[in-house]
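G., the chain you wanted modeled:
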Amino acid sequence: MDMILSVEETKELLDVAKGKKAGSLLLKNVRLLDVYGEKIYPASILMKNGRIVAVNPSESCYAEREIDGNNLIALPGFVDPHFHIDSTQGTPASLAEAIVPWGTTTLCGEILDITHFAGIYGKGPVETAKAFLKEYERFPYRLLPLAPGKMSDSKVTEELMDWEGTFGLGEVLSHNILCQEEPYLNILHKARKEGKFISGHILHIVWDFPDDDVKARPLGFRQMSDDEINQFAIMGYPHDHEIFNYEGVDRILSRGMSPLVRTFEGLAKRVMSGVLNDHVPTENISFCMDDLFLQDIKMNGHLNLAVQQAIDLGISPIKAIKMATLNTAKNIGLEREVGSLAPGRFADILLVPSLSDITPRFVYKGGELVAKDGHLIEDVHVDYSELQWKWEKHLEELAKEDLAYEPTDQELSADKKTARVPVYHVIKRIFEEKELRVVEGKVLPDVSRDIIRAVVVDRNDTRKVIKLFISGFNLKEGAMAINFNQNIYRIIAVGLEVGPMLAALKKIDQHLGGMVVVDKEEAVVEFLELDIAAVASSRSCHDIVSKVNAMEEKIKTWGVDIDNALMILWFTGFLYLWD
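Predicted structure as tokens:
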């Protein structure tokens, strides 16, 4: 991806700056936010060929068009340094309607889920990735694709790293570095040697492999040690997005890397309150989104939400905005291209009412108006039909009794009326041992204590079923399910009774992928088909949001009282990556 101007392109911009040629647009009467000087001043912005040519040009400079900014504040477009496109349930095209109206104009996009699934499905991972990213250069946001650093064969990663459309390397799982796996060390060396951007994945928890053997079954999760964090700095990691508390900010900053703060599960509020209370300089801290469903983004916001939350906590508005613009641009190595409103940079401009309300009224990408008052100026349409693969059902013979939990002898009480079984709490992210009733040799859920059933089912000839209990959703009836494609075709379903859960599993199994909510009568309430390589829907952003909203509203009537419940369900499936 070449962003460097040619000599001829540079000469044309110089002529416009001299007043010898016309610019394409002059945006007048704005209050420009200078992220370098941390001040706001009255300004006009002259643009040509998608770039800013001059700020407050002289009267000798002119443009083909002039627009009155009506004294709105001009901010640089927001830059997301770490985002999984194929975790949104949308395509790169439908994602535009979700993020651009909120002010995100540049995004480092990971594509590891779709690439991985293509491999286990028998399709070409590299060809699939390119098909998923096709026509991305005409989108109303700057998509900077990252080759998958995890869940794909290293040869696939290397081939995508060599593709001219690739901006850099996506996150590599921590244990592959700590266990010094040669293929991954070689990939990181290749990225550093070629000056490619590297996306980091460090803190929080790691899988503990026996004797550093990544092919062996993980022993469990554990916290990252300080000695281990040092190793990622040695590897050239610029940042880490696995920040779950203020302590994580300190541990990453002190080793010369930048923490990326997310909004998911209230993390921005939790982390930034510590930054504020400890008076930590924010120049090396940025925001990112990581994983979010399209519905959540469209309804609640993208990077603007993180910035707004930081401002509401008491962080200086300009410093909060820098965390989504200049700080990020520096971190990904594009300070001369994006992240500020200065000559030579792309003319990616947000016009907002005030620093207390940064919801954009107008969004410009490359000097062209792409969104106004919360909507795209023009919808993006891309044909992804080549990724709508066929699927053969595998779960038709699955029965209700296959989903019931039968306790082990070790779990059963002496009178066989109760059993002590592990229950996973989806918010605390820990297993807790609980005593549950046993009737006719089957362990029962306990809705009074928010303990429901869960199953993880393989969609192949083995039809393997992993059974467990879950708490944290507060679900009191019905069932919900979603497929996740990590290492094998799998669906995770939760509910009180096995009937609705079985109906949910079989509904998804009729399709390449999907997410579904089923009522207590075993009827489908709403279903979102993920017909694009089992990870994305070919529907429009509006349709996807409508369907997921319907699911969220229904499960709330059934007691679910947490945000992002369906995405948390998807994340829960990752517990069984290696099982």
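The mean pLDDT is 94.

Shout if anything looks off.
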